[in-house]
Design a protein that fits this description.
The protein is α+β, with helices and mostly antiparallel strands. The protein has one domain: Aminopeptidase (3-Layer(aba) Sandwich). It contains five helices and eight strands, in the order E-E-H-H-H-E-E-E-H-E-H-E-E. A hairpin with a 2-residue loop joins strand 3 and strand 4. The longest helix is centred in the last third of the chain and has 15 residues.
Length: about 210
């Protein structure tokens, strides 16, 4: 999937598969990715606290658990490439895949509708401010629709004061506004819940 960001960055976005796993590892092992490689996008997939197995750090355990999902054929997110180099990541999937959302005071269910959730963005520190996240979001909507999703939900930040790039894992409200998301709930002043409906009837895309 080709996608273009707001700063004219064109990236090739692909689902994370077993063959592309080394690309995610490379992206998360770079400078500026310490939080990403500590979590490995597993935090919201669990409802309670998980103690890592003996001999493994929390980071290593999370990495192992995410790889196990990928090895099973689960696509937990999409990778963005610029000139063949991985530069960005977006985690998304059916809301039911993210057990912690059900207990979150900010992100708990608005209703009983079947939704897909976008829970995390990560962009290489050297590739930021070029529209990579916007391009990832556009591709994520296309991917979700191709998997049969008809409703996508996100939980961005909405603050006037500038936040550091490393704290914007959920994205910003303005980036979702630009692609047609609408606010459906707000449990905390700076944390809206936003949704966008997708047209039904697309064929399921292959990884």
């Amino acid at each position: 999937m080709k996608a273009r960001g707001t700063a004219a960055a064109e990236i090739d976005v692909r689902p994370l598969t077993k063959e592309r796993w080394p690309d995610l590892v490379e992206l998360f092992e770079r400078p500026g990715a310490s939080i990403a490689r500590g979590c490995w996008c597993m935090y919201y997939r669990r409802s309670g606290e998980r103690v890592p197995p003996p001999g493994l750090t929390r980071s290593r355990a999370n990495r192992r658990d995410l790889k196990a999902l990928v090895d099973l054929g689960v696509v937990p997110g999409l990778l963005g490439y610029e000139s063949g180099r991985p530069v960005g990541w977006i985690s998304l999937g059916p809301r039911a895949d993210y057990a912690k959302l059900a207990r979150s005071p900010v992100m708990k269910p608005v209703d009983g509708k079947a939704v897909w959730s976008i829970v995390c963005f990560f962009v290489d520190a050297q590739a930021r401010h070029r529209g990579i996240a916007d391009a990832l979001l556009a591709a994520a909507l296309a991917w979700a629709r191709a998997q049969g999703a008809t409703l996508v939900e996100a939980y961005p930040w909405d603050r006037v004061a500038k936040k550091s790039d490393d704290s914007l894992w959920f994205g910003t409200k303005t980036m979702f506004d630009r692609v047609g998301f609408v606010e459906v709930a707000r449990r905390k002043p700076a944390r809206p819940v936003m949704r966008r409906a997708l047209r039904a009837g697309a064929k399921k895309a292959k990884p």
